[in-house]
Amino acid sequence: METLAKLFGGQARVKIMRLFLLNNNNTFEMEEVASRSRVLKSNARKEINALFAMRFIKQKMVVHEGSRGAKKKVSAWHLDSSFPYIDSIRDLLVDPSLLLREDLPIRFKQVGKIKLMIVSGIFIGSDKSRVDILVVGDKLKKNIIQQIIKGLESEIGKELDYVVLDSEEFKYRIEMYDKLVCDIIDLPHETLIDNGQLSTYISKK
């Protein structure tokens, strides 16, 4: 992230550019850009103005209807698909290998005893995956996991699909041939944490 931040003018800009690149059919108002990217509104406004000036994004007016029927127009922005370097920038900012190098296991170090951690979806560049992250362990702190996921979403620019299971529930789902868990295991993925116990259990089924 640091290298990209230096190249593109800061972490805030990288986060906001990823937001538009990965949601290219969506239109965002200023507050949503700031919220989704986890950037201060003042910084979001500055970056939006810069990206609009270089024609990376387009502006449009959207209409909001108040409680008493009063209507007001609000500025919103969306990706400009005609931007000449959009494919090159997308390849660089949404590079799955780069996202993996940000060392996800370290980020999840304080959430409890993780026995198995699998990533797929956005992290391996696959649109066939059911989830982006699977975390299996014991005494996991789900509130902290949720905070970490929110942070990742702001950096990546996309909402993540994730599943958190304790060891016994994971084993039970494997035994019952649960479709979600089986799809995660059978479809392309990368294993980032594996203490050996659960992977051995999977192989026996």
Q: Which sequence of SSEs, written as H and E, runs from N to C?
A: HHEHHEEHHHEEHEHHEH
Please outline the major beta sheet: 4 strands, mixed
* Share in helix: 40-55%
Determine the number of helices (DSSP H or I, runs of at least 4 residues): 11
Strand content: 15-25%
Average predicted confidence as pLDDT = 86
By CATH, the architecture of the largest domain is named 2-Layer Sandwich
Taking strands numbered 1, 2, ... along the chain, how are they ordered across the largest sheet? 6-5-4-7
**Shape call:** elongated
| Ends apart, CA distance between termini | 39 Å
Summing up helix and strand content along with how strands pair, one would put the structural category as alpha+beta
Q: From the alpha-carbon coordinates, what is the Rg to the nearest angstrom?
A: 20 Å
What is the domain total for the residues?
2
At the first level of CATH, the class of the largest domain is Alpha Beta
- Residue runs with pLDDT of under 50 for 5 or more positions: none
Q: Give the CATH topology of the largest domain.
A: Beta Polymerase, domain 2
- Number of distinct beta strands: 7
Overview of the molecule:
By secondary structure, the chain is α+β, with helices and mostly antiparallel strands. It has 2 domains: 2-94, Arc Repressor Mutant, subunit A; 97-204, 2-Layer Sandwich (Beta Polymerase, domain 2). The protein has 11 helices and 7 strands. The strands form 2 sheets. It has a 4-stranded mixed β-sheet. A hairpin with a 5-residue loop joins strand 2 (57-65) and strand 3 (71-79). The longest helix has 15 residues, at 142-156. The chain is elongated and about 55 Å long.
